[in-house]
Write a structure and sequence with these properties.
Low-confidence stretches: none
Helix content: 25-40%
Number of strands: 18
Shape: globular
Radius of gyration: 26 Å
Oligomer: single chain
CATH class of the domain at 2-27 and 111-290: Alpha Beta
Strand content: 15-25%
Structural class: alpha/beta
Mean pLDDT: 94
CATH architecture of the domain at 2-27 and 111-290: 3-Layer(aba) Sandwich
CATH topology of the domain at 2-27 and 111-290: Rossmann fold
Largest sheet: 6 strands, mixed
CATH superfamily of the domain at 2-27 and 111-290: NADH-ubiquinone oxidoreductase 51kDa subunit
Strand order of the largest sheet: 2-15-14-18-16-17
Length: 485
């Protein structure tokens, strides 16, 4: 096992993971009604395949992936589709199309699924199986796993890094996974290596997880695969951010305008690897995930293995219920998580943690004050940006300066917010600016496409007019007995 230092900036934060890690991983009861979001968190929703009244089993496809970042969606239970409706969901929009399924309790599995002899499969076919299984990145981003693996294969990446750092406060689902299912993580690493064509894999874990490290070491010894190793990192936030992790583990810097395969590396979450292991062992698509349910507002903080589509209220109930009325429900950790408007929001692949926060867990931000140019935000910024200068450029509406100061490189980790003495919500401003920039670029692309369509239409009209003119002249010349042309 190798010991690696991590990147210089970042924060040493209170972990707040002790309470849920006292409990063994538990299976959440399957609720009578599941709300399966067709956008599993990647940003593109799948297209619904079934209507109300359709009978489904575990693994029945209910959503077809059409967009570039959509994933296929499958029923997590056996039962009947009660509707395809707009429901509250986790994500920027706050709502989305969901397939509502009434659970009949039979747990009948869709026919045709069987273990996969994956070493004998051509890599492209294995990638297709991963795609049809709907597996997304389970670290929170929920980007389709097959797309990242295919990009790594296309660019001949040589090094796969499995992210088990889990650096953000409160979140400990990966720690629970590695402690109890380390063999699945190692088997998943082998599957992903075969799919992407990399020569080696490193499982990266922060050094504050000794039980997980020990379990992974045992699993690695049992697998006896020299291509797969383990490295530990100093527990610094955000060591688990992709580019920072790759810099610490693989010693490479990913250019701001490129993706990791461009420099020969790729990153997947340990939960994604375990999902790949489940796929090859059973042939079944992903229908559940491990999620941390924690905070002072829940009676028994724990990590639970739950079906996708389980409402947050049912996850809290599986952990003993509410202690009191929470001040806030947060999907994700305290640094990058999003507040939820209701506990009716369903579990998706992107939700790795639910913090049931009370006043004991939340620190009042206080009144925002002017920037004092202290530079604290720059000293902790993992990508090495100058947040105060970036904010000035955003406030000035200077697109060139915004780009020069690296808005696209911001990883929205919240480190700058955490240390700002003026209590400026920098991350929220950067997130809003990126959203506005995306809208602006989309409008420009639509305008460019509309202009291109208009020019092609004008060219067609001109060609038709020219053809008509030439036909008229030819007919007139024939009538006059003159040679054509």
């Amino acid at each position: 096992m190798a010991q690696r230092s991590t990147f210089p900036p970042g924060l040493e934060l209170e972990a707040r993971k002790t309470a849920p890690m006292r409990q063994p991983l538990r299976a959440a009861p399957v609720p009578p009604l599941l709300v399966v979001a067709l956008d599993q968190g990647s940003g593109d929703a799948a297209e619904p395949l079934l209507a109300a009244g359709a009978r489904v089993r575990i693994g029945t496809p209910v959503g077809r992936a059409e967009g570039e970042t959509a994933v296929a969606v499958h029923s997590p239970v056996a039962g009947v589709v009660r509707g395809v409706e707009i429901r509250p969901v986790h994500g920027p929009a706050g709502e989305g199309v969901c397939v509502v399924i009434e659970n009949d309790g039979s747990d009948e599995v869709e026919a045709g699924y069987a273990p996969i002899d994956w070493p004998m499969l051509p890599p492209q076919e294995l990638l297709a199986r991963i795609r049809s299984a709907g597996i997304a990145g389970l670290g929170g981003a929920a980007f389709p796993a097959h797309a990242k693996l295919a990009a790594a294969r296309e660019r001949a990446a040589t090094h796969l890094v499995l992210n088990g750092a889990e650096c953000e406060p409160w979140i400990c689902c990966d720690d629970a996974l590695m402690r109890e299912r380390a063999a699945d993580v190692v088997l998943g690493a082998q599957v992903l290596l075969h799919a992407c064509g990399a020569a080696k894999c490193t499982i990266a874990v922060e050094d504050d997880k000794p039980e997980a490290i020990a379990a992974v070491e045992v699993a690695l010894a049992a697998a006896a695969d020299p291509r797969i190793g383990l490295t530990t990192l100093r527990a610094v936030y955000p060591a688990g951010a992709e580019r920072q992790l790759l810099a610490a583990v693989a010693g490479v810097e990913v250019p701001h305008d490129a993706l990791p395969p461009a420099v020969g590396v790729m990153c997947q979450n340990v939960g994604t690897a375990a999902a790949a292991a489940h796929l090859v062992r059973t042939g079944q698509p992903i229908t559940g995930r491990i999620v941390t349910v924690t905070g002072s507002g829940v009676r028994e903080p724990a990590n639970v293995d739950a079906r996708l589509g389980t409402p947050i209220a049912d996850l809290v109930a599986a952990c003993g219920g509410y202690v009191s009325e929470p001040l806030r429900l947060i999907a994700g950790g305290s640094m990058t998580g999003r507040a939820l408007a209701t506990d009716a929001v369903p579990l998706t692949q992107a939700v790795n943690c639910v913090v049931v926060a009370t006043a004991a867990d939340l620190v009042a931000r206080g009144r925002e004050m002017p920037c004092i140019r202290c530079g604290d935000c720059a000293s902790v910024c993992p990508p090495g940006l100058l947040p105060q200068s970036l904010l000035r450029a955003i406030n000035a509406g200077d697109e060139a300066e915004v780009a020069r100061h690296g808005l696209a490189d911001c990883i929205e980790c919240g480190c700058c917010d955490y240390v700002c003495p003026s209590r400026i919500p920098l991350t929220a401003r950067f997130r809003a600016a990126r959203a506005a920039r995306k809208v602006q670029l989309d409008e420009r692309r639509r305008a460019a496409a509309a202009r291109e369509r208009y020019l092609r239409h004008e060219q067609r009209l001109a060609a038709m007019a020219e053809a008509e003119r030439q036909a008229f002249e030819a007919a007139r010349n024939r009538a006059r007995g003159e040679p054509e042309g």
